[in-house]
Amino acid sequence: MKNLFQFLMAALFAVAIVSCGGDDDATGGESGGQDGACSLTCQVDVESVYNEFGIKDEATRKISQGFSVGVMQYLYNSAGVCVKSSSASQRDWKEANFHYQVPEGQYFLVTVVSLMTNSKDFAYYKMAYTDRLSDVYVGPTQKMLHSPFVLGASTQSVSVSGSAEVKVTPKAVGALLRLNYYDFNQSTHVTLGLYNKENGEKFRLSPSYQGSRRFEINSNNNYITPRFEVKNTSASTLTGDCYLLQPSTNCGFYVIEKENVGKGIYKGTSSVSFTLEDGKTYYGGCRYSDESFYLDDKAGAGFNHRYSNGVTPTPTSDLLPNLYLTWGGSVSSVQSFMRGYTLIGESSSYLAYAGRQSEKEIDYVFSSATTGLYQTQVWYEKSRVSQADLKACLSEKYTYSGTYSGTVVYASSDGNTVVGLEPYDTYWVVLFVDRNALSSSSAKPTTRCAAARNDEVLSKVASRMPRNTGFFECKMKAR
Question: Which helix (H) or strand (E) is 148 found in, with range?
Fold first, then answer.
């Protein structure tokens, strides 16, 4: 009875509730949870994980709604047996402090951080097999996880002799995906989502697990696992996010039609493999008009079934962005088509947009201030994209004509579009030109260097082009 009274008093007044092997599934061990002559103080940085993901403001809002920042900590002796465990729950970003009395020796300190509910449990995660360092892990309690309910963890070796202090900075594990759905208000789909073909079930905390081995994944290629869903509305753009506790993913976008609600029947894009890094945010989007999608490690990626993260290479067939190539088109039509891209330059005769994938920049050139599109240019950095890959990409879509003064020339099957690939300084430039505009006086040159073509160049191009093929030669002015 006395021991029970002492435990209850400690639980009421201590900021960090300390137990001696006190988890339900922790049995203590060699030290039996007994106090020792040495003192160990642990200072835990509870905000490091949220800063790493860039979601501290989101987490702060959740705290104002009743959640708290939670820390669970386990101390293991040199035999890997849990001798102390503690937890803390707080509604501020101050360091969480833990104090232990232990015998002198070498220990492993395991710390896990995530948002907690009022019950002082992690909102979406559960600790398991905490009695042994070799077995301890944290796992999700549901499949759809989202920001700011992420995980941070740290496992470090601690030597205790006399009085010791240690600072703990948990590192983010898993990755966030920020998602956008465009123009689905034009559809009859009732639900939009993201799926993958595997499920991260455990994150192991023993130092014997490193890299991708820290994650235990359950994969089944015959089924998909919904990771994020949002109800379709009248909004032209819907956003969301999901959190993946895994080192890679094989994922895609899906929709659910009204007649299939509750039946587990989805209509989805093909899945793509993607390597993930701990603490990193990735970006994805899906567009209703052409069911194109993108996945990328940079905000503002391009469409046309493109995906890249610096590890998984972009297929050469997907190097070209989805371009507006309706010759004679208006400025407003191009602006509408390029919605979602960042405009970086414009004048009375051109529009320039920042690239969103492999390309650096996309330019559109017009014959007047309002209409008359006759040229589109795509710029690539030589350090990122090779000429061989661009040639392979263009050869899949256009007919090769030849090489003229360093410009590799192609034509569309209908002969209306002339395509050129040429080097300029540190760039490769792919030009798409209206064949009919090459010798037409209605095509006025732009004044911007990046897209400049004077009348003399135009006339030389027109005079040297084989009229039966639609091929051309064109040189750019200084960028």
Answer: none
